[in-house]
Design a protein that fits this description.
By secondary structure, the protein is an alpha+beta fold. The chain is built from 9 helices and 20 strands. Strands 3, 4, 5, 6, 7, 8, 9, 10, 11, 12, 13, 14 and 15 form a 13-stranded mixed sheet that branches. A 3-stranded mixed sheet has the order 17-20-19, with helices on one face. The longest helix is centred in the first third of the chain and has 19 residues, at 67-85. The model is unreliable at 1-11 and 87-113 (pLDDT under 50).
Length: 335
């Protein structure tokens, strides 16, 4: 007859037995009878204490799991144990839980299988998610939980998601100024159209509207600009530089975001685009139908909430006149 108190056990045998005892104490409170039996089991082999302590340590790791996931996984263990109880495997007079139960608890403690998927899914969820939007003519300042600050221009929408490993802002429409709190462990990404802007901590602006390509302008620090659908192209911009349409240029003298000071800066811009820019802030009731007039270029700095000043500047700066037609004003050639 084999003396099981001194026999050499495989690691799997020890783990299975330790798991069996561990689950007994999880399912029911200690009693004098179970405590005495447990102590006899511990004394039967020097490695049993180590195996049992390992399950205790692994179980404590579940403190980092989301509660909903823990409860779901506990239920799975209970189901597996019930199945195992109906089909015990006799081995040397001892009952051993089937391997699936051991693996299920490993899932809970070590992060494998479905438990790992649940835990990993939880880890991938944002710790903060919020959308912000401005209406026509409005601006909005936002401070994020990580200390970063956003300034939204008129007719702008951003979708903020702060994750444990990264920070992400989507800019479907409009333009925004970003003052990013430095955090080397969590890079800050701005996604606008097909453009991805990546920084650690700096101040920059991104414009994504129907008028022209995405524009990235840097005021402080350095940013990386890449295409989301390509891995072989990236541009690094330093303070005082901007990128639009693949072309790097110096930031205009008006700065990276003149709109934060209530100004629209037109830099040799076609008249049709200038009108569209004013329309982002409010109705101008001005239209242009003549393609030649629409192509005329204009420069200057204007208050978007005072379109009357812009109307006056048009006739002073361009060979045009204003022709009233009902509630609209058409810009036509002067001759």
């Amino acid at each position: 007859m084999t003396d099981h108190s001194t026999a050499t056990f495989h690691d799997s045998d020890l783990d299975t037995e330790a798991l069996d005892w561990f689950m007994r104490f999880c399912d029911a409170p200690h009693t004098a009878h179970t405590d005495a039996a447990f102590q006899r089991w511990l004394a039967g082999h020097p490695d049993r204490q180590v195996a049992y302590a390992r399950w205790q340590a692994d179980w404590r790791q579940m403190d980092a799991f989301p509660l909903a996931g823990v409860e779901q996984l506990r239920l799975q263990v209970a189901q597996d144990k019930a199945v195992a109880a109906r089909s015990r495997v006799r081995r040397g007079g001892r009952s051993a839980l089937v391997l699936r139960t051991a693996l299920a608890v490993l899932v809970l403690a070590l992060g494998g299988g479905g438990g790992y998927l649940a835990w990993n899914h939880w880890r991938q969820q944002p710790v903060f998610a919020q959308s912000y939007e401005t209406q026509r003519g409005q601006q909005l300042s936002v401070q994020l939980p990580d200390g970063s600050k956003l300034r939204l221009d008129t007719a702008t929408r951003v979708e903020v998601s702060l994750y444990r490993q990264r920070r992400e802002v989507r800019l479907p429409q409009g333009q925004a100024l970003f003052d990013v709190q430095a955090d080397s462990a969590r890079p800050f990404h701005v996604l606008a159209g097909n453009t991805r802007v990546t920084v650690v901590g700096t101040r920059f602006a991104v414009r994504h509207t129907d008028e022209g390509p995405v524009r990235v302008s840097v005021e402080e620090g350095m940013v990386s600009v890449a295409a989301q659908d390509r891995t072989d192209w990236a541009v690094f911009l330093a303070a005082g530089q901007q990128l639009a349409g693949g072309v790097v240029a110096a930031v205009a003298s008006s700065g990276i975001a003149p709109w934060r000071d209530g100004r629209i800066t037109l830099d040799n811009m076609p008249l049709s685009q200038a009108l569209a820019e004013f329309e982002r802030y409010g109705p101008t009731r001005m239209v242009v139908h003549d393609p030649a007039v629409a192509a005329l270029r204009i420069s200057g700095s204007f208050d978007p909430l005072r379109p009357g000043d812009f109307r006056q500047a048009l006739v002073n700066m361009l060979p045009v006149r204003l022709q009233e037609s009902g509630t609209q004003t058409e810009i036509v050639a002067a001759s």
